[in-house]
Amino acid sequence: MSASSLSLPESQRGTLKHLVSQHINEMGLLAVIAVLYLVFTLNAPGFISLNNQMNVLRDAATIGIAAWAMTLIIISGEIDVSVGPMVAFVSVCLAELLLLQVPLAVACLLVLLLGAGLGTLAGVLRGIFNVPSFVATLGLWSALRGMGLFMTNALPVPIDESAVLDWLGGQVIGIPVSALIMMIFFALFVFISRKTAFGRSVFAVGGNATAAQLCGINVKRVRIVIFTLSGLLAAITGILLAARLGSGNAGAANGLEFDVIAAVVVGGTALSGGRGSLFGTLLGVLVITLIGNGLVLLGINSFFQQVVRGVIIVVAVLANILLTQRNAKKN
Known about the structure:
The chain has 331 residues and is mainly α. The chain contains 14 helices and four strands. It has a domain at 50-254.
């Protein structure tokens, strides 16, 4: 047998090993999702029912839409902890505008601009004034949560019946509209991250901002744009949440920012920046959503659920670090 005939299988084995090492996190998450489905199907009453699966998709959309922008933010080496209060604040503003008889289309446009503007503010603080993104968005977190509660006296603001909002909170061909919107934005952000100069710039800034600046990338603009996108997607989530609840609620989306960050980190995006994928985040969203849904159906105490989320985040970060170190040693 000739040497050339032996070299082909060997090269294929090398390619296979490379693919496995590249996507080991996603493969692991798919296995985790399968295990979660098996465990909760056997132990959680009603978990596998069609109605509950639709609830899983709705909950996934609430986390996922915001998670797409959060993925780019964390890849760039930044963080945004203002997502939850921004979603709730947008839902309150939408409800208040509708109470003032503002047309729904105009009200939605105004709150979308509000979300984008608030995100831009965080981006300007980071990009122009070099305020650490955690500090800038933590300030927004506190201000928006307080403003929402002040405006409503911590009470839900009811929204009159609307065909459009009912449609947004309903289903199309048996699938929640919010889940379809989530997947549309997923496809859009996959395209942005893989096929555009801006997406490549985000990875470059996260890998080494100084080197990216020397290569001609406008680091300030990249940082501003990603936070603007985060604010915009938070506003979209706020509109969908208001449509689902039928009210604007300043107490809604409490802790959402931690679920979003956990989904991105569990999906394999490095908190240090420069590495991550939208597909990994999608799987991370499903893992976080399934765990939350399953724990509720099992009757687990809501306070203990927070403990589980915390453990998940720590374990995910640890696994991320170990994978990074392992790949560095191989290279």
